[in-house]
Amino acid sequence: MRVFQPTRKALFALFVYIIIPSYAILLTMFNYPDLSKSRFIEIMKWIILIGVVLIIISQVQVRYERGSIKRYLMNVAYVVASLLWLLALFGGKPYIQQYWGEYEFRIVVWKILLIALAVAALNVLYFTLEYAVYRSTDAAGVVKKSVNPRGVRLLRTNPLK
Amino acid sequence: MTPRGLSILRAFVMGANIVLAALAFINLYTLTSGAIKVYVPTEEDIRLIFTEEGPTLVTNFTVVNRGFYDIYDVRIDAELRDAKGRCIMEYHRHGIRIPAGSVKNYRVLIPVKLDFDDARALILGDTTYTATVRIEALYMWGLSRFVLDESLEYTWRSLKEEFLSWLKNLTLGELLDLITNVEAVGDVLPGVLKNVEGLGFNLSFTLNSNSSLPLTTQLTLYYRGEVFLDITFTCDRYGVWEVYTSEGVIS
User: Does B27 contact A105 at a Cβ distance shorter than 8 Å?
Assistant: First the structure.
């Protein structure tokens, strides 16, 4: 029987994207009853949903070696999902709309979203470079094996004959 | 790129991710948890003062900053319209800074565009005002902006109504005390007429010789040394109240 073992990255995603924010939202929701509960619940629904996607990506991506196109695509998907997660945390708009009792107020956060976009671009750049570096290393390894006259198969078969 | 260069870039990217997470959480928690609050005036906070320059509206705004950073460039823009939709008051105040952990109360005195008849109407009749208030404030190096855009309805309770309800609740003993003790009138009346400070007043009561109804109460208001308004309140032997001015019966 195969036991499911979560990776460290998946556990990290579980804490950072689901447990800590959900706890913070619940804490705020119950400590400040004047704020709109339905708004918080809506936000929580989305961050849990996208959080689960992030956990799945974290769990699956370790199966692929660095330098493989699948790993690279998983990393990019992780960055995009993180960005969407942040947007969900802000309520899906470049401003957070909340109600304090009867008053409605907005917190305009597009500058933070802009910074998030820049950081996401930086992450994608890193993963692209990582992909390029590891792919060329692997390619070099393959070449080395192919020119080696004493390959693994040859060594195993020769002494017996 | 070399693997070493990649490691350096990785550390840099990790740092950027941590900074972004901290920014997002600090901002969100501070702003949505009510660490920053703006109290706009309620009906009880609005009063009219008759100064030498003219009727002036007195109210206050309170900004509470319990966050980690200063709130700066607070902009308050308010406009008050009467029941006919006329703008009778405008207020603009920009560039206010509220340090972290402080509570600032801004007392606001705004000249009201009211002529003599409008001011008299305010004393004699209840009305509704609509205030449009826009408050903006920058937080955390301008990364987030707090915006409150509200349209508020205020019911103005006239001096006549305030005075009449006070009069109706007086017991005979209190009334007789007020009739015999002129100083008591001076002590009580400003509290009753708190909505319209600055007006001079004179109050007289007339009861039957045997201290029974009908009661006639004459309230004279003075503004800039002249008689501004004369209001007479009568209560007949059946307890029915009537209010009238020199121009006729109001209610």
Answer: no
What is the C-alpha to C-alpha distance for residues B37 and B8, in angstroms, rounded to an integer?
43
Q: Where are the domains of chain A?
A: 8-135
Chain B residues within 8 Å of chain A (Cβ atoms): 1-3, 6, 9-10, 12-13, 16-17, 20-21, 23-25, 27-29, 31-34, 37-38, 40, 142-150
Tokens of B160: 């006549």
pTM over cut 0.95: no
Q: Please give the C-alpha separations between residue B7 and each of A128, A141, B12, B59, B174, in angstroms, as whole numbers.
A: 13, 21, 9, 60, 87
A43-72 residues touching B, CB cutoff 8 A: none
Q: Rounded to whole angstroms, how far apart are CA atoms A93 and A95?
A: 5
Record: contact A129-B143, CB cut-off 8 A: no
Model confidence pLDDT, tens digit, residues B183-226? 777 777 777 777 677 777 777 777 776 666 677 887 888 877 77
ipTM: 0.74
> Which of B114, B116, B106 has the alpha carbon at shortest distance from B56?
B114
Instruction: Tell me how far apart the alpha carbons of residues A106 and B31 are, in angstroms, rounded to a whole number.
Output: 10
Which residue is associated with the tokens 């903006």? B136
Q: What does the angle CA B3 – CA B6 – CA B8 come to, to the nearest 5 degrees?
A: 115
